[in-house]
Design brief:
The structure is a single chain. The protein is α+β, with helices and mostly antiparallel strands. The chain has two domains: 11-169, Sandwich (Jelly Rolls), CATH 2.60.120; 186-278, Homeodomain-like (Arc Repressor Mutant, subunit A, Orthogonal Bundle). It has ten helices and eight strands. The chain has helices at residues 19-24, 105-116, 127-140, 146-185, 192-199, 203-214, 218-236, 241-247, 253-264, 268-277; strands at 11-14, 26-36, 41-44, 50-64, 67-71, 75-80, 85-102, 119-121. Strands 1, 2, 3, 4, 5, 6, 7 and 8 form an eight-stranded antiparallel β-sheet that branches. A hairpin with a 2-residue loop joins strand 4 (50-64) and strand 5 (67-71). The protein is elongated, with a radius of gyration of 27 Å. This is AraC family transcriptional regulator. InterPro entries: AraC-bd, Homeodomain-like_sf, HTH-like, HTH_AraC, Tscrpt_reg_AraC-type_HTH. Residues 176-274 form the HTH araC/xylS-type domain.
């Protein structure tokens, strides 16, 4: 039966894995190289396999665990098909794919998905498409070496782990850059847009990433930093409450007093008196 949207030059291959492979290795069930129109879509509640897809050309939309991902050219998708999922082609797309299972597939998926999601950019990674090509070549010629297949799948997982670590490092640098900007400009009337523009990320995406990395929204971090600097000035200077409020980026004294009390349970005046007694 032909799949809707799968064009005529597409290929698919099948393999029945040995009992040993199912017990001890990563093992294949089927694979293919597809060219699809924008009519192609797959939606499942459960399919008891894991899926690799390499987007050679075109664009796909992936829905998994209440998230939507876009897989562009030279991206790689890793899906746990045991859970509900949907993927569809947005324009004519050429992609290679394999369904597999076994060994520690679930542990690897959960680990990588938590760190990185299910779509990986392969812009600077040539090994993964090559490993997938080798697997497809064995499938197409019906010369499947199950041990070698297992090693190639594991090498793909290893490379994906490296990509996720590099992405983590890049994200950490972005958040450090944002924090540095906040701490250098906290006296000014800065906004979420100002901080997001500084690190060149959309405000919504930046806010979500910042919260994930620091457990604070950018606004919460900014206010905490202002309050902590106000505490230092209340202890180490003779500046008035008004002066401290404006030095720490609060645009009016009433707002400063309310915010400070919300963070410390003291008014600025009472806090200074408390410190003098210590």
């Amino acid at each position: 039966m032909e799949e809707l949207g799968v064009l005529s030059d597409s290929k698919s291959f099948f393999h029945t894995s040995s009992c040993f492979a199912k017990k001890a290795l990563y093992y294949l069930t089927n694979a293919g190289s597809y060219i699809c129109s924008d009519l192609y879509q797959t939606k499942r509640d459960r399919f008891e396999q894991f899926l690799f897809m390499y987007i050679k050309k075109g664009k796909m939309e992936i829905h998994y665990k209440n998230h939507k991902y876009i897989a562009n050219e030279k991206t790689f998708v890793f899906l746990d098909c045991y859970n509900p999922h949907l993927y569809k082609v947005l324009e004519e797309t050429n992609f290679n794919w394999i369904h597999f299972d076994g060994n520690s597939s679930r542990a690897y998926f959960d680990y990588l998905f938590q760190k990185h999601g299910c779509v990986f950019s392969l812009e600077n990674y040539r090994d993964i498409p090559d490993f997938l090509d080798r697997i497809l070549s064995m499938m197409e010629t019906d010369k499947v070496d199950e041990h070698r297949i297992s090693i190639l799948i594991h090498r793909i997982l290893y490379e994906l782990e490296k990509i996720s670590n590099e992405a983590d490092h890049s994200l950490e640098e972005t958040i450090k850059n944002a924090i540095s900007y906040i701490e250098s400009h906290y006296k000014e009337d800065i906004t979420l847009n100002d901080i997001a523009n500084h690190v060149k990320i959309s405000p919504f995406h930046f806010s979500r990433l910042f919260k994930k990395q620091t457990n604070y929204t950018p606004h919460q971090y900014l206010i905490n930093y202002r309050v902590n600097n106000a505490k230092k000035l209340l202890f180490s200077s003779n500046l008035s409450i008004n002066e401290i409020a404006f030095k720490c980026g609060f645009n009016n004294v009433s707002h400063f007093v309310t915010t400070f009390k919300g963070h410390t349970n003291f008014s600025p005046k009472k806090y200074r008196e408390f410190l003098l007694k210590i």
